[in-house]
Every structure is written in structure tokens, then in C-alpha cells.
Request: fold
Amino acid sequence: MTVPTGECCAPIAREPLAEDTAAELAVMLKAVADPVRLRLLSMIGSHAGGEACVCDLTGAFDLTAPTISHHLKVLRTAGLIDGERRGTWVYYRIVPEAVNRLGALFTPLTVTGRRPQEARR
Reply:
């Protein structure tokens, strides 16, 4: 079975990634490859108002505060979240462009009037 290449396919299957693009995306993928970081990203993104205080995140894990801070730093360094200090707490929010970029990497594009499954036939 051959993998179709065209408008119906996810960007990763349409054409080879450039070396610099692959390196950038690998940093983001590596950041979300950890279950704790993936949960943190999800908790931040789904939190009321689109941002979460670090104080709202730490209680959900059986981890020390420095360990949670490390995971948040990895997500921030990868460009997936951003933070703002307010008093003694830091509030985190998702960077939509970065998260959308990851999602778009694997999301098939549709051919006008046809669902992706039909376009592959």
C-alpha cells in the first residue's frame, strides 16, 4: 500500500521536512512526550480563562514543586507555554501557534467536498 501524497495528507506525509523545521518540531515533540508534561499542557489549556497558576497545577501530581517547575520550564523552553509572574505566583498559558503547529503536522487536509477517507481511494 502506498501512502498518498497530495492535499488529503498530513503535512508530514506530503513532503520531507527541512532539517531546521524537523529540529524545531522535535524539541516540541520531545517536550510533550513525557506524561507529566502532556498533562500539564492539557491542564493549562483547559483551565478556566485559558491560563493556570502554578499553585493550581502542583496539587494534581505526586511530585515536588521543583520537579513541576522543571517540567514547566521544559514546556516553556520548547515554546509551548508562556508564563507571567504575578506577585509570588507564575501564571501559565498555552502558546496557540506552537500547539497548533504540532497538531497541524499530523492533521490531514481535506479535499474540497470529500472527506479524507474518500480522498485516499
Remarks:
- The chain is about 50% helix and 10% strand.
- The first helix runs from residue 11 to 14.
- Confidence is low (pLDDT under 50) at residues 1-6, 112-116.
